[in-house]
Amino acid sequence: MKFRVAREVLAEAVAWTARSLPPRPSVPVLAGILLEVEGGQLAVSGFDYEVSARAEVDVQSTEAGRALVPGRLLAEITRALPPHPVDVVAEGARLAITCGNAKFSLPTLPVEDYPSLPSMPSTAGVVDSDAFAEAVGQVAVAAGRDDTLPMLTGVRLEIEDDLVTLAATDRYRLAVREFAWRPETPGLSAAVLVPARTLADAAKTLTSGPEVVLSLASGGSGEGILGMSGKDRRTTTRLLDAEFVKYRAIMPSESSSFATLPVGLFTDAAKRVALVAERGTPLRCEFTPGQVTLRAGGTDDEGQAEERCDVEFDGEPLTIGFNPTFLLDGLAAVHTDRARMDFTTALKPAVLSGVDEPSADDADNGRPAERAGSYRYLIMPVRLPG
């Protein structure tokens, strides 16, 4: 194997593939990155039996071939190379890398022991890459991180014709986002559970092209795998075999009061007050017409903080407590200048959603224009002392 490639192109492809490498591989070859050259194209691949990643770049090749090299070391080397074309040559059990005056010689791993990457399932549909990245980021923040409860570490992906719904929960909050896409076949219906960390990472890094192609098996080859591909990159992940909670039954269908919050000002105030909130103690929110008072701390042996913020509030005065981290995560994921928070009682979940600028009709009835069907973030309240 012998080829020449631009340093930036090689470094980017290797770095992207190395992200999916396991930190503690079960067998040594899974720590490797597979380099394959054929017909003027280099494929850079990684696979650990759960997640696969493959990037393709154009190169000037004089000899086709393949080599398996230590992945993280290769990523560090290519990132540190000077800004010159890179020459790569595989000779026997070593890989030589030359770039300007820098030269490296790496040992190779036994390529014959490396597992074959899974084939991509059949194409299910296409979504705008920026919309997909935003939606996944909004929902994945609510996924659990306890691997002993696998159903809570995933994002539920539901497809009903031209509508995709994503949902995730860690039992203390629930995030749901809907968005439109273009299915390959009309009337497509599917529901799978995707590991949240893998989905979030893929959604953020498959943005080199305008669209992301989602691939799902409808039976037979590729069953139990979700494929995602963008321009010159593709990744697969094994699906979680677990039953997701019936989240629609958790989402309140009505509210007794609601507040319209200026997201930036309210977030800044919440961050300041939360500075004195000891681990596990709530942020106290006292809603009255025209304002909310945020409080934290209060005992003699800890700090205290209080700040008022102007909000629109419709309903009877309400005092409710939240985990400050969970509240701030939801505010950061709304992505609008104003947010609406709906309440039933101080001990039942509140629902945060984005609010668009009001139209003339909304101004007439005095209600904010809730963003139809886009993003909802349910957060469980914390019981306040006393």
From TrEMBL:
Domain DNA polymerase III beta sliding clamp N-terminal: 1-118
SMART domains for this protein: POL3Bc
InterPro entries, sorted: DNA_clamp_sf (IPR046938), DNA_polIII_beta (IPR001001), DNA_polIII_beta_C (IPR022635), DNA_polIII_beta_cen (IPR022637), DNA_polIII_beta_N (IPR022634)
Single GO molecular function: DNA binding
CDD domains on file: beta_clamp
Annotated localization: Cytoplasm
Domain DNA polymerase III beta sliding clamp central: 127-244
GO cellular component, one term: cytoplasm
Biological process annotations from GO: DNA strand elongation involved in DNA replication
Chief site of localization: cytoplasm
Domain DNA polymerase III beta sliding clamp C-terminal per the UniProt entry, residue ranges: 249-359
Pfam family, one: DNA_pol3_beta
Keyword line: Cytoplasm, DNA replication, DNA-binding, DNA-directed DNA polymerase, Nucleotidyltransferase, Transferase
Oligomer and partners: Forms a ring-shaped head-to-tail homodimer around DNA.
Function of the molecule: Confers DNA tethering and processivity to DNA polymerases and other proteins. Acts as a clamp, forming a ring around DNA (a reaction catalyzed by the clamp-loading complex) which diffuses in an ATP-independent manner freely and bidirectionally along dsDNA. Initially characterized for its ability to contact the catalytic subunit of DNA polymerase III (Pol III), a complex, multichain enzyme responsible for most of the replicative synthesis in bacteria; Pol III exhibits 3'-5' exonuclease proofreading activity.
Family as reported in the entry's similarity comment: Belongs to the beta sliding clamp family.
PANTHER family recorded: BETA SLIDING CLAMP, DNA POLYMERASE III SUBUNIT BETA
The name this protein goes by in its record: Beta sliding clamp
